[in-house]
């Protein structure tokens, strides 16, 4: 879970705006926590260090005849430089580069794909559309998405879900319309940086683990180590030309996977700035909320 705060009245929530406390079991908030941002738990206790093994007995000196493998090795043809230490080191380095680079360029130029993805996200000022969230247990729920960079985001779940999620650029508030409650989270602890940041460089701001062709498009696999509870694994799915984000998939540190499918996305539409308002309990916040409701 991302940094949870206990469910309190609006006034105490503001006081706790700079603190992160141990999470509580996900109840009504579960679908949000597990789906849009990926479930986060507090880091597990560090594993107990295993006892150092007893020193191994000293190896016996090899017999003289076992120390002469060179006589049984076929001689290298004249002019063959592969046996030189410099050539061997170069070959080893090349093998390492190939091992690291192979998963990043299976059927496409990974660098070009990442550049296109960065251009897509950095070209967004506002974004609206619909989403369908598919949880780890297979449950599906839809809703509407509204985004205004930098950092402002809103998810309105369809009925019967009472949830409403708002990010104002600093915090994320999860509101339960039925219970009239609100939970706050640090925006920096969410793995949705690719949507929230004004400018994003996927290779710099996250860890790219794979870029590959996917049926009907391109898949970019990322890791975000800055989320609370461990590393989140994120997969972004684009069309073949990397011009539309069709879905993302988040796998939390415990291995639970949630998919959010997107549709009817429209960039650049005018959106109401009050949609991203969060009431922290201050006097001015209460006055603003009253004014918004009166509109």
TrEMBL record:
<keyword id="KW-0732">Signal</keyword>
<protein>
    <submittedName>
        <fullName>Outer membrane lipoprotein-sorting protein</fullName>
    </submittedName>
</protein>
<dbReference type="Pfam" id="PF03548">
    <property type="entry name" value="LolA"/>
</dbReference>
<dbReference type="InterPro" id="IPR004564">
    <property type="entry name" value="OM_lipoprot_carrier_LolA-like"/>
</dbReference>
<feature type="region of interest" description="Disordered">
    <location>
        <begin position="38"/>
        <end position="88"/>
    </location>
</feature>
<dbReference type="InterPro" id="IPR029046">
    <property type="entry name" value="LolA/LolB/LppX"/>
</dbReference>
<feature type="signal peptide">
    <location>
        <begin position="1"/>
        <end position="28"/>
    </location>
</feature>
<keyword id="KW-0449">Lipoprotein</keyword>
<feature type="compositionally biased region" description="Pro residues">
    <location>
        <begin position="44"/>
        <end position="56"/>
    </location>
</feature>
<feature type="compositionally biased region" description="Low complexity">
    <location>
        <begin position="57"/>
        <end position="68"/>
    </location>
</feature>
């Amino acid at each position: 879970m991302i940094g949870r705060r206990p469910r309190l009245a609006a006034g105490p929530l503001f006081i706790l705006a700079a603190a992160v406390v141990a999470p509580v079991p996900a109840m009504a908030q579960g679908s949000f926590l597990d789906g849009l941002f990926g479930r986060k738990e507090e880091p597990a206790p560090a594993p107990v260090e295993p006892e150092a093994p007893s020193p191994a007995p000293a190896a016996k000196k090899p017999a003289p005849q076992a120390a002469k493998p060179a006589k049984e090795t076929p001689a290298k043809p004249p002019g063959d430089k592969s046996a030189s230490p410099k050539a061997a080191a170069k070959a080893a380095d090349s093998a390492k580069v190939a091992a690291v680079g192979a998963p990043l360029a299976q059927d496409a130029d990974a660098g070009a794909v990442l550049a296109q993805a960065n251009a897509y996200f950095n070209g967004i000022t506002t974004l609206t559309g619909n989403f369908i969230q598919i949880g780890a247990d297979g449950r599906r729920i839809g809703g509407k998405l509204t985004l205004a960079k930098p950092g402002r985001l809103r998810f309105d779940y369809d009925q019967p879900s009472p949830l409403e999620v708002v990010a104002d650029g600093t915090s994320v508030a999860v509101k339960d319309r039925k219970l009239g409650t609100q939970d706050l989270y640090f925006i920096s602890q969410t793995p949705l940086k690719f949507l929230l940041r004004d400018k994003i460089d996927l290779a710099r701001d996250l860890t790219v683990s794979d870029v590959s062709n996917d049926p009907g498009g391109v898949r970019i696999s990322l890791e975000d180590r800055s989320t609370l509870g461990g590393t989140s694994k994120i997969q972004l799915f684009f069309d073949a030309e990397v011009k539309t984000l069709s879905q993302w998939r988040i796998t939390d540190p415990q291995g639970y996977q949630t998919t959010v499918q997107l549709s009817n996305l429209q960039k650049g539409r005018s959106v109401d700035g009050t949609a991203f308002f969060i009431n922290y309990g201050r006097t001015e916040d209460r006055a603003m909320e009253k004014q918004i409701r009166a509109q």
